């Protein structure tokens, strides 16, 4: 049974130029699917910023000490004991829920539109599919998944692909 919970998804265009508005729908669809996929039973909030390479480069340097642009950065608000184990939230709900809305604050996602467009071209698929992929990847980070080991990487790749396929965002998606 699929639970339809409300999500507060903020998508901020910080590019200074317009991009296809349907990308916002794709981002929202993937966020909702990822939330359902991991079995999150809370109403949640997520903020997504669409930026340029210079902005993500600065963030990557200041937050991770890596002096280069990247495709996506994730800033989880929850320190999970195990990925998608929401028991930590129940121990200290005041740390994880927005006091105004009552929603679980999952975190922030920052996507470089420029890098996504470059990667879409390199991989031979659409920018829409690349944005969907980067969103799924980042959502898994917001749920505590990582890819520091080979096993973790393989698990995340499998989960990302399952999330995308559920919504039809395959490599041939236009």
Outline the biggest β-sheet.
Answer: 4 strands, mixed
With strands numbered from the N-terminus, the spatial order across the biggest sheet is: 1-2-4-3
Helix-strand pattern: EHEHEHHEHHH
The proportion of strand residues reads 15-25%
Averaging pLDDT over every residue, what do you get?
A: 92
Structural class: alpha/beta
Q: Give the C-alpha Rg.
A: 16 Å
Instruction: Give the N-to-C terminal Cα separation.
Output: 29 Å
Low-confidence stretches: none
- How many helices in DSSP terms? 7
Name the overall outline: globular
The total count of strands amounts to 4
Helix content: 40-55%
Word description of this protein:
The chain has helices at residues 22-37, 53-64, 87-91, 93-96, 113-123, 127-142, 150-166; strands at 7-13, 44-51, 72-76, 104-112. The radius of gyration is 16 Å and the shape is globular. The chain has seven helices and four strands; from the N terminus they run E-H-E-H-E-H-H-E-H-H-H. The relative contact order is 0.18. The two termini are 29 Å apart. It has a four-stranded mixed β-sheet, with helices on both faces. Helices cover 47% and strands 17% of the residues. With 174 residues, it is of the alpha/beta class. Strand 1 (7-13), helix 1 (22-37) and strand 2 form a beta-alpha-beta unit. The model has no long low-confidence stretch (mean pLDDT 92). Helix 1 packs parallel to helix 6, helix 5 (113-123) crosses helix 6 and helix 6 crosses helix 7. The longest helix has 17 residues, at 150-166.
């Amino acid at each position: 049974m699929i639970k339809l919970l409300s999500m507060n998804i903020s998508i901020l265009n910080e590019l200074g130029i317009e991009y296809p508005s349907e990308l916002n729908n794709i981002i929202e669809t993937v966020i909702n699917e990822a939330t359902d996929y991991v079995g999150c039973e809370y109403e949640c909030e997520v903020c997504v910023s669409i930026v340029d390479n210079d902005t993500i480069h600065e963030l990557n340097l200041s937050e991770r000490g890596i002096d280069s642009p990247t495709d996506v950065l994730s800033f989880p608000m929850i320190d999970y004991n195990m990925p998608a184990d929401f028991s930590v939230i129940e121990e200290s709900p005041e740390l994880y829920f927005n006091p105004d809305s009552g929603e679980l604050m999952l975190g922030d996602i920052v996507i470089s539109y420029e890098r996504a467009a470059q990667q879409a071209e390199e991989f031979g698929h659409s920018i829409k599919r690349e944005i969907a992929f980067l969103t799924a990847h980042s959502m898994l980070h917001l749920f505590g998944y990582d890819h520091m080991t080979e096993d973790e990487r393989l698990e995340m790749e499998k989960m990302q692909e399952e999330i995308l396929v559920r919504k039809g965002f395959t490599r041939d998606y236009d």
